[in-house]
Design goal:
single chain; 417 residues
Amino acid sequence: MGKKDSLITKGRYELKFRGVECLNCGHPLDISDKYCPNCSQANSTKKLTLRDFFDEFFSGLINYDSKLLTTLYALLLRPGRITKDYVSGKRVTYTNPFRFLLSLAFLYFLMFTYNNRFSNLDEAAKNFDGTIYNGSPISFDVDAGNIKIDSVALEEQSKETQKALDSLKKVNPGVLAGMQKLDSIKDETPELSPQLTYLDSLGVFAKAINEKKMQKDSFMNADPQGYFKSLKSESGFGEFSKKAEFFGYFIKKDTLFNFEQAQAKYNIEESTTNKMAFNFSNSIWKVMSQPGTWINDTISKLPFIIFFFLPVFTIFISLVYIRNNHTYTDHLIFSFHNQSLLFILLILSLTVDTIFDTSSSGIFLLIFGFYLYKAMRKFYGQGRFKTIVKYIFLNTIFMILAFFTIVVTFTGSVFTY
């Protein structure tokens, strides 16, 4: 009777609600089984009430918090020990390393994108009026990505410069002699004449290029369909680049959002090349018009990239420790734990920077560097010299792979944004 009474618990776990078969997986159960040994579901036939539902929710939450706190404590204060415990079989005590890393990665990049540090780039792009320097006759044509030089503005600027020089001569007559000597260099040194007249020729050259560009734009405006059909005479990359230039011009001019709009407006046939050219131009235009948003969106995708990057990096760890008894999965768990610690430090750094308006990432990265060395020493159990050599080698490989991954990610994002 005492044994029977000791088994009784409150709510849906009372003996009268116990079953002899798991309702989830069908595994045979004894009346003493509070949970199914096969799938861990509670052994209860009682219908769920609202109270039961919330009791289970808070019970699971407290259980997760307990694991979370234990994992954080071990990860922060016992470098390498948490991995050693996990691979040796102590897994119920800690959270799953893959799920833990995924949660931290999402949390960090969510905080990073919410902080929106690059929003000023969007504002700069909106306020960009095509002038590189305020008051300069040099401008950048966003539509086609080329430089224009306004000859009228150049002439006006030359007049203003001449007035300033005349004023300077009156204030300081000694400058006049120096300037006259400079003017005489061209006559006395004929071999320097091309260099001295080079700047004068830039305006003429740029004006000719600008006129040619205006003629092309005029032709495209007059007969867009005819101009696009004429591009069929091109081949290979030349055809693609000119089609991309065509779409880039009209995406800006007519505010086109998708290929179907361009197809209907200019009677363009549906083909893979045409779609690719439009999507390429559209991506470039969105990156140029909203650079800050593009950077934030690309960075927000990095959590997914990390889970492709770490397994590749783990191959180098397993090669460095090839004589060790650890499996590839053990090395991967070690990578997950260390990367999780890095995200924890970056989250702390981002929080400190937001509160105190400072830059503390360097300090936290130094802490991570020391932590990583201690983790390698503890988990792999090798001496200081071997650990330092392998530490330097693996960090070099990590930086190379990380740089390559970031370049590929941002380059691909430009073409697919």
